[in-house]
Each structure stands twice: as C-alpha cells, then as structure tokens.
Amino acid sequence: MTGPSEVWLAEGVDARTLPKVLLHDHLDGGVRPDTIIDLADQAGIELPARDGKALRDWFRTNADSGALERYLETFDVVLRVLQTPEALHRIAREAVHDLADDGVIYAELRWAPEQHLRGGGTLDDAIAAAAAGLREGAEERGIRAGQLICAMRQNTSSLEVADAALRARADGELGGVWGFDLAGPEAGYPPSEHIEALTKLAGEFLPVTVHAGEAAGLESIASALIDGRALRLGHGARVADDITIEQSDDSGTRVSLGPIASWVRDRGIALELAPSSNLQTGLELAEGSAGGGRVESIAAHPFDLLYQLGFETTVNTDNRLMSDTSVSEELQLVADAFDLRLGDLEQLQLNAAQAAFAPLEDREDLAEAIDAAYDAGGAV
C-alpha cells in the first residue's frame, strides 16, 4: 500500500501518525495485489498482470474511466479469487493490518456477501469468515473494526441479504455486523426498489447507509433518506446539486440551500466523501448548482463548500486498490487543495467518530482519543 512520507510540513505532522476514523471502505476494494496473485495461483485463475506493481497499475488505470459502471467492472477480477471462506478471512485480516499501518483506529468495512457464493457457501458462511478475519486483525493491531453488509441494488436479493445481516448482527463487537448498505450502480436502481428490506431493517433498528449522490442526483438522495431511512450517505457529493450560489464577490459568498440539502445538513446526516474515487467515476454536478459541471480536479470537488457550510463531512477511501490510495493520502489531497490546517483535520475525524455506527460510549472514546492525539501534535 502506498502512503505519503510526510504531510502538512508547515505544521510538522505526518498524516499517518494522526488517528483516523474510516466509515466508507470496501473490503473487496482494498485487497493487496500480491494477495490477489497468490489466491489466483492457488485457484488456477488468469489475471491481467502477474506482478504486484503491474497489477496495482492495471487496477488504477482501468478504474480511472470516468464512469461508475466501468469502475465497478474492475471488481470482476477481485471477485474471481474471493469465493472461499479462507480467502475472505485472509483479506479481512490483511485489510485491518493495512488500515492500522495508516493510523486508522476505527474502521467500518463494507462488502456484499452475495457476490462471494460461487464456491457453494451461504451468506452466513461468508459473513462469518469475514467476521473472523476482521476480529483477528483488530485484536492483533489494537483497533476497532467491523463490517457493513451490502446488498447489490441491481439484484433482487436485498431482503435475503438483510435477513443475513440481522442474523449476524453484533453491535460494537469486533468483526461483527454493525450496519447495512445499498451498493452497486446507482443510476436506475433507487432505494425504493428495496423498500421491503429497508423497512425490515428500520423495524429492527439496524443502522443503514446508502450509496447516493455519487452517480445520480437529488432523487437518489431523497430516496435514500425517505425509503432507506439512511443515517449517512455513501458519497453524497451531489447534495451540492441542491445548493445555489446567490452572490459571490469581494464582500463574500452567499448561498441558498434547497430542502434536501437543508435536511441533510440540519439533521447532521454524514457525507461519506471519497475525493479520488469521485474523480475516477466522473462526478458531475447539476448545471446551475454550486460548482455545476464535471469535477475534473480535487480543487473542483464540492468537499470544501460542504465543509464550510457545516455539513457533516468525512473523508474516505472507497476502494484503496482501485484508487491506489490511503486515508492519509485522501486527507493530504483535501488539505493541499483547500488549505486545511490541523484543526480542520481533527474536526473531520470528530465528524466521522460522531457518525460511526458504534455505541455512544465507543464514539465518546474515539472522540477522546482523537482530541488527545491532536493536542499532542499527532500520535496514534
């Protein structure tokens, strides 16, 4: 895994030493290239490259397509080698180790077990294997890690997946199921199509986040909030479609928020922003909104607008393999683009801690650890 050697030199802080809370990281989107090669060798599976560096480059190049659908196609290669409980256990444990090396102290890793059943296992078997790997890694490295179970929105198995998530629910336990998500191609597959599963989850009080506001706009976000009862938005960047700049001159900038943006901000619904991934998948804001049009650079990303307006912004990786990134690198990108200082970075981590699908006492402990480390100048 790559990572910056030094970050924020003006304040003498290396980002990797700062404690970080990660809310949006796909388990099968962060597999080590060497592990993919090893698992492929064991199963006799052909890969587009046989060298770790070459394979990493292949993923990054092919994910950098400008379209979410093409970005998701890179997962086909990973999924081929992740069809046994042993493989799932391994990558879950390794993911926790990699995150701990980057200073992550709390991580929610999401994945869709329905995509890992070609070997004949069950949803329960797959979830248990990942749980064991996450728990082992977390105990070895002294961090907190659990899983969010995803249902693929283009499929019809969301109720079955929701039932499996509820059976494996283990609030706050290492490796346990801490919440639920809808993932997959966003456009054309609104959360309303999965209303039965989402209603059942709400009735059982299992926290839900929904991919919305990434490749589709305000209707997708509204469905996530209304039909999904989402407590967080996976990405959510296109909530900026509901923000209009009324005035911007030497006296300052005045904006107006529409009803969806107001609801998201005023209710503290966290945005799981992933800047590098958003650029790769071709984030495009509605014309006429704040920053409307294709987002071509981190500096053009609505992150800073949302942060300055008081949205519960968080910084995430999405898929560390496909974006060839880490949490520290994502924080460096936004810090450089928007001149963020140490206090801003602390606030981003406090936002993430507050939005975590963890018991209140655990979230308070996270906030205390973050405050203490930042007061000390950054030490995990």
Automatic annotation (TrEMBL):
Its EC number is 3.5.4.4. It comes from Gulosibacter faecalis. It comes from the Bacteria. One of its GO terms (molecular function) is hydrolase activity. The keyword Magnesium does not apply. The lineage of its organism: Bacteria, Bacillati, Actinomycetota, Actinomycetes, Micrococcales. This is adenosine deaminase. SUPFAM superfamilies: Metallo-dependent hydrolases (SSF51556). InterPro entries: A_deaminase_dom (IPR001365), Ado/ade_deaminase (IPR006330), Metal_Hydrolase (IPR032466). It is an enzyme of class 3 (hydrolase). Signal peptide: none annotated. Residues 19-372 form the Adenosine deaminase domain. Keywords: Hydrolase, Metal-binding, Zinc. Belongs to the metallo-dependent hydrolases superfamily. Adenosine and AMP deaminases family. Its cofactor is Zn(2+).
